[in-house]
Write a structure and sequence with these properties.
Structural class: mainly alpha
Number of helices: 9
Helix content: 55-70%
Oligomer: single chain
Shape: elongated
Strand content: under 5%
Order of helices and strands: HHHHHHHHH
Largest sheet: none
Distance between the termini: 44 Å
Length: 190
């Protein structure tokens, strides 16, 4: 399949389109249009529609790629250090205009639409969340195999990730405030 050719035309097209979306968000666009992305990237609108189908799917692809590249879950064997590194990366990301816009796109993709229907990109977002959960679970499984009692992924999301995102959304505190305390809390309550 053409999508798997590293360095091929598909990879260059994807990179150009992703760069255009990130630049548009960084400039303050709430939701760029396919036309804006096409003009910025030099990639024809038809190609963008053929590859991603809709702007929401493209934005979700960019968001997931950015999260995986900029804030992957580390797995050094030191769970506290890994959780802190990951939390700082996520908080740093949502402090930027671009990172916040991409977080918003991911959140919108996982929220149901009016009438209880899933968002068009909900399945794509769910796949990303399963990938992220699996990354974290591998690290937690290693801690458990070594005789430790790690927290669950859900508990990490509730105690560490939720405050970061809530602070970013509502702006009542910096997203990176007290991350050491949050990580220590999740590790103590297991």
């Amino acid at each position: 399949m053409a999508d798997t050719r590293p360095g091929g035309r598909t990879a260059r097209t994807r990179a150009a389109v992703h760069t255009a979306v990130r630049e548009l968000f960084a400039e303050g666009h709430d939701q760029p249009s396919v036309r804006e992305v096409s003009e910025r990237s030099g990639v024809h609108e038809v190609t963008i529609y053929r590859r991603w189908g809709r702007i929401e799917s493209l934005v979700l692809d960019v968001a997931v790629t950015q999260l995986n590249e900029d804030a992957p879950f580390p797995d050094s064997g030191d769970l506290r250090r890994d959780l802190l590194g990951w939390a700082h990366a996520v908080a740093g990301q949502v402090k930027t205009r671009e990172g916040f816009a991409l977080f918003h796109a991911l959140a919108a993709a996982t929220s149901p639409l009016a009438g209880g229907k899933p968002a068009p990109t909900a399945d794509e977002a769910a796949r990303y969340l399963r990938q992220r959960t699996a990354q974290m679970q591998r690290a937690l499984d290693r801690v458990e195999a070594a005789g430790g009692k790690p927290p669950t992924v859900a508990h990490i999301f509730d105690v560490v990730l939720a405050p970061i995102y809530l602070r970013a959304v509502f702006g009542y505190e910096s997203p990176d405030k007290d991350l050491d305390a949050l990580v220590d809390q999740v590790l103590r309550t297991t």
